[in-house]
Amino acid sequence: MDSEIKEEVPVHEEFILCCGVETQVLKCGPWTNLFSEPRANRPKLLIFIITGNPGFSAFYAPFAKALYSSINRRFPVWVISHAGHVLVPKGKKILTTSDDSNAPEINDIYGLQGQVEHKLAFLRTHVPKEIKLVVIGHSVGCYISLEILKLAPELPIIRSFLLFPTIERIAESPNGRIATPLLCWFRYALYVFAYLLLKPWPEKIKSFVIRTGLRMMNLQSEFSVLNILEPFCLANAAYLGGQEMMKVVKRDNETIKAYLPKLTFYYGTIDAWCPMEYYEDIKKDFPEGDFRLCEKKIPHAFILHFPQEMAGMVADWLKDDLSKI
User: Fold this and answer.
1) Which is catalytic among the residues 70, 139, 145, 224?
2) Is 156 part of a structural domain of the chain?
3) Got the DSSP string for 266-289?
4) Residue 183 DSSP class
5) Are the C-beta atoms of residues 118 and 21 closer than 8 Å to each other?
6) SUPFAM superfamilies, per this entry (predicted)?
7) Which helix (H) or strand (E) holds 77?
8) What is the pTM of this model?
9) Domain assignment of residue 238, yes or no
10) CB neighbourhood size of 173 (10 A)
């Protein structure tokens, strides 16, 4: 199935300036510029994927492609990187639009709230208002998805899927207890280490190290993932992670209650970022909600080895909604 998806699904890679920051967008399907399409030819819906942290959208390409195939290629599926988690490779052009230059400047754009505003700015400048939206968040992308619902109720979001949602008490989770001191107390030491170790490396060495690592993990990527070893990107990912530990504490029950009919939550049974206790708690608080527990022992980082399985499930959950469009 992997080889079929790679050969058949068209994926367009773009680098844009969003709020003045280099941003990678992967677009499945023939629609690359929704505004340039005649209104009659525009898709009626866009599936928009917000990544976890680090926000390397290249790793989400297999999931996006599998989902696009699973919905019979009816609607575009786009993945956006986080601000500051990507640098434009040499020889690649940055696409700009007049709306990008008019986008408001965002304070602390690499921080948690800045990432929310970054996604909102993209949706407002790159997606026509009449196109309906399905938003899929993964990990901290679920927190961002809920913030988008709260801050932009005018957006025509018909469904939001929150996969392995880190929307509360991250620092108290098993992984959070380990990550908090590293990301909050020793972050600057990590910065210095990354810059001293990785900055001098030529691109060829970085490429070799990444290829070797991917091969050892039995992974492939058709798009460049050099940003994994870019100190600038790693520093921004660590900065965002530190803010997650400090700021994602109390679950936003008010927003969840307001949009509960549109929300589907998917929790893991072996997720050290979001333990099963959180699933049990939210089910008690919202007994009428759509909360699902993984029965396949899929890990938090499903994008690495289980993209097709997750795409198939999301496509099944979407069937009723898509049948009405």
Assistant:
1) 139
2) yes
3) EE-SS-SSS-HHHHHHHHHH-TTS
4) I
5) yes
6) alpha/beta-Hydrolases
7) strand 77-80
8) 0.91
9) no
10) 21
